[in-house]
Amino acid sequence: MNVTLDRNLPTPLVQQLADGLLRWIAEQRLRPGTRLPSIRQLVKTQGVSQSCAIEAYDRLVSQGWLEARHGVGFFVAERRGMAPFAEEPAWGEGAEGRWRLFSDEQENLLRLGCGWLPGNWRQSEEIALAIRQVSRGGGQDLFGYGPPLGLTALRQQIRKRLALIGVQVRPEQILTTQGASQALDLLVRTLLSPGDTVVVERPGYYNLFNLLRLHGVRMLEVPRTAEGPDLDVLSALLREHRPRLLFTNSLYQNPTGTSLAPRTAQRLLELAGEHDLRIIEDDIYADFQEGPATRLSTLDSQQRVIYLASFSKTLSSSLRVGYLVADPELTARLAEVKMVTGIGCSRFAEQVLAQLLGSGVYRKSVQRLRLRLAEHMASTLRLLEATGWEVFAEPCGGMFIWTRYPGVPFARLQQSAQEHGVLLSPGSAFDPQGRDSDWLRINVAYARDHRAQGFFQAVAQASS
To answer: Is residue 84 part of a domain?
Structure first.
């Protein structure tokens, strides 16, 4: 056996060896059950270390190409029923079609309408360092369960950050979650029953709509304006239906990018008091804040607001760390549901985040993100204006613009986007009932890409 290895290539030697072994098996047409050279033989013939040879074999075992027999060696595996994944999946209207933005099958497309920052905007080296520091610590952080309310060190850091934006809380009011999505799920499970009625914004967060439908909760729609929920419509809904909860974004609403005006926030709290309404304030984009901002939680004197946020957008979607703030009694109930449904959160992920918050790395990171997003927001707004696109409302921060090209239906926008290698988020996804819409959510972090710019200009030229 002769596998060519090139130590000057950037590909790790162990991967070269594994790929070479696989090619050799194919070229020799080795049948299942054929024994491969021993580790000792592989080390001698290929001039690699023992650990390199072992890892190459182990990789092929994990991929199903080889079978390891203890004390005997490695053998070509039987691969019955192992049909390869289709390289071009047929995207339909099922789960895969609805979650296409999250797929790793078409990485070549520009996800112009996605809800997260590009990977190269993240602080990968700092996160890797924090991971190494936690890994060198006690075994509890690597192998243990997290406490019901969340890691104390992290909750202390969260409390400090909340104080900086005017949200004063006690430690027993803070519950960590697996991102904001779990926080919403815990609230729906705990506070609502099938048949209950809530108010949601239109347009709004599609996964919230899916969650409420899953639990059999009836949704009433309130239009989102440039200053927040439409107060006249909301007042009428509250009088007629007496809903249990209102879900809203205060800052940089998803998908419109709009923020609450002070007078709207004050009136919202007045209406909540008049109609015994609880408000879920989703502040997931809190750390993108530039300048003064209005939050319901800072104005709430009757404890009607439940606050939730996350570090997924600013730090890492993979770490999946979020939190919520409620009165101590409700927080205790939510912690019980959290333990029943998931046995806590990742202690390791929470310890990594606590390290980043405590060292000041996170603070510096979000400062850079704010500046970068502000630059991209300004340039994207200029481009849209120059090419004739209509903007719902000019955001004062965050990463979303809600836009459309007047008179052009989504089907035509999608066709043009595909021609330019762009993947869109249709406006219908942000409608509680999934109704057709020609509006699009644009993530400004991706809008400087030449494919996005070509798409914006092509739509304008085709419509002129």
So the answer is: no
The answer to whether residues 213 and 257 touch, using CB atoms and an 8 Å cutoff, is: no
Given a cut of 50, whether residue 322 has pLDDT beyond it is yes
Domain boundary among 360, 376, 392: 360
Domain count for the chain, please give it. Answer: 3
> Could you tell me which of 89, 90, 107, 99 has the C-alpha nearest to residue 421?
107
The DSSP annotation for 193-233 comes to: -TT-EEEEEES--HHHHHHHHHTT-EEEEEEEETTEE-HHH
CATH number of residue 199's parent domain: 3.40.640.10
Q: What is the DSSP letter of 426?
A: B
pLDDT value for 398: 94
Domain presence at residue 328: yes
Query: How is residue 43 annotated by DSSP?
Result: H
Asked if residue 305 and residue 403 are part of one domain, the reply reads: no
Q: Is residue 5 part of a domain?
A: no
C-alpha distances in angstroms, 343 versus 322, 346, 351? 16, 9, 17
Question: Band of the pLDDT at 89, cuts 50, 70, 90?
Answer: very low
Could you tell me whether strands 440-443 and 400-404 are parallel, antiparallel, or unpaired per DSSP bridges?
antiparallel
Residue 346 belongs to what domain range?
A: 124-360
User: Is 94 a domain residue?
Assistant: no
35: which strand partners? 75
- For residues 380 and 454, membership in a common domain is answered with yes
Nearest to 1 by CA among 13, 14, 27: 27
Residue 11 has pLDDT above 70, yes or no: yes
Q: What pLDDT does residue 81 have? A: 54
Instruction: Clarify whether residues 185 and 294 are in a common domain.
Output: yes
Nearest by Cα to 111 from 463, 458, 444: 444
When computed from its CA atoms, the radius of gyration of the chain, rounded to whole angstroms, is: 26
pTM: 0.81
β-partners of residue 360 are: none
Angle subtended at Cα 89 by Cα 83 and Cα 90, rounded to the nearest 5 degrees: 120
Q: How many CB atoms lie within 10 A of CB 18?
A: 22
CB of 366 within 8 A of CB of 122? Answer: no
What phi and psi values does residue 48 have, to the nearest 5 degrees? -115, 170
**Domain's final residue, options 316, 339, 360:** 360
pLDDT digits (tens, 9 = 90+) for 215-271: 999 999 999 999 999 999 999 999 999 999 999 999 999 999 999 999 999 999 999
Q: Do residues 201 and 234 lie in contact, with contact meaning Cβ atoms separated by under 8 Å?
A: no
Do 353 and 267 belong together in one domain?
yes
Angle at CA 163, nearest 5°, toward 337 and 348? 45
Give pLDDT tens digits for 193-210. Answer: 999 999 999 999 999 999
